[in-house]
Design a protein that fits this description.
With about 375 residues, the protein is of the alpha/beta class. The chain folds into two domains: about 1-160 and about 360-375, 3-Layer(aba) Sandwich (Rossmann fold); about 175-360, Rossmann fold. It contains 18 helices and 13 strands. The chain has helices spanning about 10-25, 40-45, 60-65, 65-85, 95-105, 125-135, 145-150, 160-165, 175-180, 195-215, 230-240, 255-260, 270-280, 290-300, 310-315, 330-340, 345-360, 365-375; strands at about 1-10, 30-35, 45-50, 90, 110-115, 135-140, 155-160, 185-190, 220-225, 250-255, 265-270, 285-290, 320-325. The strands form two sheets. The protein has a seven-stranded parallel sheet, with helices on both faces. Strands 10-9-8-11-12-13 form a six-stranded parallel sheet, with helices on both faces. Helix 1 (about 10-25) crosses helix 18 and helix 5 (about 95-105) packs across helix 6 (about 125-135). The longest helix is centred in the middle third of the chain and has 21 residues, at about 195-215. It is globular and about 65 Å long. The chain starts with a strand and ends with a helix.
């Protein structure tokens, strides 16, 4: 039996890991996966030694609060792998956690693959030296990443993004609206405040107040807010409760894909959801708020004027970004309504996002599996 150590840090890593595991299982039936896995990976047989939620912490201040527990968990996981070494280790995203682990394992002669390049093109570019010490190979999701690693002497394979393989080139707006029982004439705004509790706490009131202002201008508007946990739903419900005006806000358990596909426009916290919205060819306003200290630290290390993945991939501002102090309810509402009134810009957005979709559609799981199997053969 081949043993692969594997660590995913959050829901997006669980999705990537599940596709990779499934592709590997189609090639070989003698592989066991053990480490930290989410529900999708575990359904395919991956063994999780610790809950994936323990790693789902974002922002400098938030990480500091949980630092002791994370360090203790990481050391325990390392000891487990050293006591019973895997044939190969795959770290999926979670760079600060996984690169340390990978370096320790690589120094013991274990091959290490890191799946998902950290955003060295956006900030902390000097990390590439540490990455070189930690990994045997990087699997990159975006086409502009390999040249950065090749220049630094790091082995890299461009595998594309699995969402581009999964999502059709032409979204089914009518089908999504039928699924969610929405009228074809409704002006539908999908609002995605983030997947973590800390993100929803930052964005819930902001989104509710933005919805109030949009509804005042567009009484045909309906707002869809997909949330994935009971805790995040309760945070958003509280923000709605504190707003005395009745607003047509529909909270969904999950269904983020359906909400975005059914929408005319998306207001979205910066993260993986922005890429899914782009692949669904949706105009969007990207926003993000975080604690002030985290923002100040991040702002000093930014290398690009944009943070949203659709803009990064296009190499220009295709859709607007409202970050931190600019992220006000007034600004969100105004920019969203202005965006939807510019038909020429909407056509250009669709054209840009279609080009991005084609560039990322690479049969990702198969390419990633091939890279992994090269080390097992």
């Amino acid at each position: 039996m081949i043993r692969i150590g594997i660590v995913a840090g959050e829901a997006s890593g669980d999705l990537l890991g599940s596709h990779l595991i499934e592709a590997l299982q189609q090639k070989r039936s003698d592989i066991e996966f053990i480490g930290i896995a989410g529900p999708k990976m575990m359904r395919l047989g991956a063994i999780s030694l610790f809950p994936i939620e323990r790693l789902s912490v974002r922002g400098y201040v938030e990480v500091i609060k949980h630092l002791w527990g994370l360090l203790k968990l990481r050391r325990a996981l390392l000891n487990q792998f050293l006591a019973d070494p895997p044939d190969l280790f795959i770290g999926i995203d979670a760079p600060d956690f996984n690169f340390w682990l990978e370096k320790k394992l690589k120094n013991k002669g274990i091959k290490t693959i890191h799946y998902v390049s950290p955003s060295i093109w956006a900030w902390r570019k000097n990390r590439i030296k540490k990455i070189k010490q930690a990994v045997t190979e990087i699997l990159a999701l975006f086409p502009f990443e390999p040249e950065l690693y090749l220049a630094a002497g790091v082995k890299v394979s461009y595998v594309g993004h699995p969402l581009a393989d999964i999502l059709p080139l032409e979204p089914d707006l009518a089908g999504a609206r039928a699924t969610l029982k929405l009228d074809a004439k409704d002006f539908v705004v999908a609002m995605l405040p983030g997947s973590r509790q800390s993100e929803v706490q930052q964005h819930a009131e902001l989104f509710v107040q933005a919805a109030k202002r949009i509804f005042a201008e567009r009484p045909d508007a309906k707002f869809l807010v997909p949330l994935i946990t009971r805790q995040t739903r309760e945070i958003f419900e509280l923000a709605i409760f504190h707003e005395p005006d009745q607003l047509p806000i529909d909270l969904l358990f999950g269904h983020a894909h359906d909400a975005m596909e059914a929408a005319d426009v998306v207001i979205v916290a910066s993260g993986t959801a922005t890429l899914e919205a782009a692949l669904l060819k949706k105009p969007m306003v990207i926003t993000y708020r975080m604690p002030a200290l985290s923002w100040q630290l991040l702002k000093r290390m930014r290398l690009q004027p944009y943070v949203g993945l659709p803009n990064v991939l296009a190499g220009k501002f295709v859709v607007p970004e409202l970050l931190q102090d600019e992220a006000t309810a007034e600004n969100l509402a105004m920019v969203t309504l202005r965006l939807m009134s510019d038909k020429a810009h909407l056509a250009e957005i669709k054209k840009e996002f279609t080009a991005i979709h084609h560039s990322l559609r690479q049969n990702t799981a198969e390419k990633a599996a091939a890279a992994v199997l090269a080390y097992l053969n």
